[in-house]
TrEMBL record:
Naturally occurring in which organism (per UniProt): Collybiopsis luxurians FD-317 M1
Top-rank taxon, per record: Eukaryota
InterPro entries in the record: NAD(P)-bd_dom_sf (IPR036291), Sc_DH/Rdtase_CS (IPR020904), SDR_fam (IPR002347), Sec_Metab_Biosynth_SDR (IPR052178)
SUPFAM superfamilies tied to this protein: NAD(P)-binding Rossmann-fold domains
Pfam families cross-referenced by the UniProt entry: adh_short_C2
Keyword entries, A-Z: NADP, Oxidoreductase
The protein's name in its UniProt record: Uncharacterized protein
PANTHER family (UniProt xref): 7-ALPHA-HYDROXYSTEROID DEHYDROGENASE, RHAMNOLIPIDS BIOSYNTHESIS 3-OXOACYL-[ACYL-CARRIER-PROTEIN] REDUCTASE
């Protein structure tokens, strides 16, 4: 009989994980969750200092480990170097979490073409590049998990950190960001349809409001109360929320899920419209 205890079903112990943009924000939240649950986590970000500082913090937590490999993922050459360095250290990659990204806002009449290209490159194109280059390690992890009949017992996982702004039009003019996140969710579904034969799942997480550096300007401009009014659960996301979602998709509990988009947004996407009280009474 299979072990259906929570410890077995949701375990990521001893899995090898790569988290891009893992030195801060949502990436650090995710990396922390995996390290605290016994995984071996590689983090990457542009700043060597930030990567090393985060890795030191997480290694103090344990019981898993954290290894920094700094890289500027906006550059194709750096993506290749990252995978080459990872391949020297590991023969398999159980989980790839594509989290690194950037944002930029500006009026539509003044939105620079160069900025649009920069955001699309990092937030979408280089995610494809990294996933493509990691395929040998991901395929090796799927094979190492064993095959039962024609099915992989423990598929490798690719998780793309997307955004609710790729689904719902935001209040701010972040055209390139929303286009990239919408494209990322469709890319995830496309990858899911083609990579299953290799024992690799692909899913995306549409993140709502989290207390991060990227979110800070919006919270400051609109005010936290105004933001929370759009979230039925009346709070921003916590580290446990996003780490838990990623661990779920990476564990035995999520082994039969591929091509899905999981909204981790406190209900933002299904928030009831706020209308005038008098109009509401007539309805």
């Amino acid at each position: 009989m299979q072990d259906l205890t929570l410890g077995a079903v949701f375990s990521v112990k001893d899995k090898t994980v790569l988290v891009t943009g893992g030195s801060r924000g949502i990436g650090k939240m995710i990396a922390t969750g995996f390290v605290e649950n016994g995984a071996k986590v590689y983090i990457t970000a542009r700043s060597q200092e930030d990567c090393e500082a985060t890795a030191a913090d997480l290694n103090d937590l344990g019981p898993g480990t954290c290894c920094p490999i700094p890289a500027d993922l906006s550059k194709q050459t750096e993506v290749k170097r990252l995978v080459e360095e990872l391949s020297k250290k590991e023969n398999v990659l159980h989980v790839l979490i594509n989290n690194a990204g950037t944002n930029w806002g500006g009026r539509i009449d003044e939105f620079p073409d160069t900025v649009f290209s920069k955001v699309m490159t990092l937030n979408l194109q280089r995610i494809f590049t990294l996933t493509q280059l990691c395929l040998p390690l991901l395929r090796a992890a799927a094979l190492a998990g064993g095959i039962e009949g024609q099915a992989y017992k423990d598929p490798a996982r690719v998780i793309h950190i997307a955004s609710v702004n790729g689904i719902k039009v935001p209040v701010n003019e972040t055209y390139a960001y929303t286009a990239a996140k919408a494209g990322l969710m469709q890319l995830s579904r496309h990858l899911a349809g083609y990579l299953a034969i290799d024992g690799i799942t692909s899913n995306s997480i549409a993140c709502g409001a989290f207390s991060t550096k990227m979110m800070a300007p919006l919270l400051k401009t609109l005010g936290e109360d105004a933001v929370l009014k759009q979230i039925p659960l009346s709070r921003v996301g916590s580290p446990e929320d996003i780490a838990g979602a990623c661990i779920y998709l990476s564990s035995r509990a999520g082994a039969y899920i591929s091509g899905a988009t999981l909204a981790v947004d406190g209900g933002y996407l299904v928030c009831k419209p706020i209308i005038d009280t008098q109009v509401s009474a007539k309805l």
